[in-house]
Amino acid sequence: MLHDFQPQTVFIGALAAFVGFASSFAVVLAGLKGVGANEAEAASGLMAAAIAMGSCGIVLALKTRMPVSVAWSTPGAALLATGSAVESGFSAAVGAFIVCALLIIVAGISRPFGRAIAAIPASLANAMLAGILLSLCLAPFQAIAFDPILGLPILLAWIIGSRINRFAGVPFALLAFVAVVTLGVPFPDGWQDRLADAVVPQPVFIVPTISVDALLGIALPLFVVTMASQNIPGIAVLRANKFETPSGPLLATTGLFSLIFAPFGSHAVNLAAITAAMISGEEAGQRRESRYTAAIVCGALYILFGLSAGVTTAFVSLAPGILIAAVAGLALFASFSSAAMAAFTNERDRPAAAVTFLASASGMSLFGVSGAFWGLLAGGLMLALLPRRTG
């Protein structure tokens, strides 16, 4: 195996890890806080999610000898960020994370269940995802309205980075965020001690509770967006690069790692698409049989990044929330545009997709259940009632 670690695979694995973590950790933090996590619980959740995706990626790469990339559920975190804290608190959200993990395991080991999830119309799944992402994608412009001196440099840095390289936009925006927070935000007394205390990783075990509103408002929508926008595309990327492997064991393994780390605040991990495209293509080396080592390098760095989650969370908490939301929104621009386009491509499905999109984006909550669930339900009902074309 040591012979398979080529300079090119090591480099692309490290680059994939940086892109995967830096481009979306802000979304994960926003999501955990959106469902009631305090600063310590959010830091624990970020650490647990990073360690979960790193260790799961290493296990799958060693087991399959394929460049299987694992990531946290970024759309799922966006769903959490745009929702509202459940009445039972973060413990109920953790209970929902566990149920979501169990559903992913069932989808992996049960072919009929997996086929049923795959049968959800792509237009509705993408419309729900686009609606979930909309409010976060508005955050960069809301940050400029909040304070142009703080918000505008983040957007400009993203534009400049994106012009240089499509993967450089969010890291540039993140560097701009660090700069404007360091230079333009007054820090409270004792902030140095706060950062120093966060250096040592401090996992927090959350005793889960089960509530109906969390199951319907968090677990089910989280499961749907994770499957539809992460796991299924992740499998497609592997197959596009001629890496054929049964999808069931891969899904079940990501569900198992999600289950293990959920009590520490991790919302969900899944098969990756973007980083999988990086480490499974020719950029990871000419020897296809060696590309799995890029996944191992990526996973190892994810674990190291996770151990620094406390410092990351402590620093982010020093800034106005709208600024880190702006970075999160910029990280989701590409996902939003892709989901919106896919949602409205099919002319027949457009009315149902519009209902799903608007309900998911509205922020409404009925009986404690978020609009994402009701939007998918209403869109599915409308799609079933639409007349089918013949001929």
In words, what does this structure look like?
- This protein has 391 residues and is mainly alpha-helical.
- The chain has one domain.
- The protein has 20 helices and 4 strands.
- The chain has helices spanning 7-22, 25-34, 39-64, 74-82, 90-109, 111-118, 122-137, 139-146, 148-164, 169-184, 191-197, 212-240, 247-261, 274-280, 292-307, 309-316, 321-331, 333-343, 350-362, 371-385; strands at residues 70-72, 269-271, 365-366, 369-370.
- The strands form 2 sheets. It has a two-stranded antiparallel ribbon with strand order 1-2. It has a two-stranded antiparallel sheet with strand order 3-4.
- Helix 1 (7-22) runs antiparallel to helix 14 and helix 19 (350-362) runs antiparallel to helix 20.
Oligomer category: single chain
Structural class: mainly alpha
Distance between the termini: 57 Å
| Spatial order of the strands forming the largest sheet | 1-2
The count of domains is: 1
- The best one-word shape is globular
* Helical percentage: over 70%
Number of strands: 4
Question: What order do the helices and strands follow?
Answer: HHHEHHHHHHHHHHEHHHHHHEEH
Main pleated-sheet profile: 2 strands, antiparallel
Provide a count of the helices: 20
Q: Specify Rg, calculated over alpha carbons.
A: 20 Å
List unreliable stretches of 5+ residues: none
Please state the average pLDDT score: 83
Strand residue percentage:
under 5%
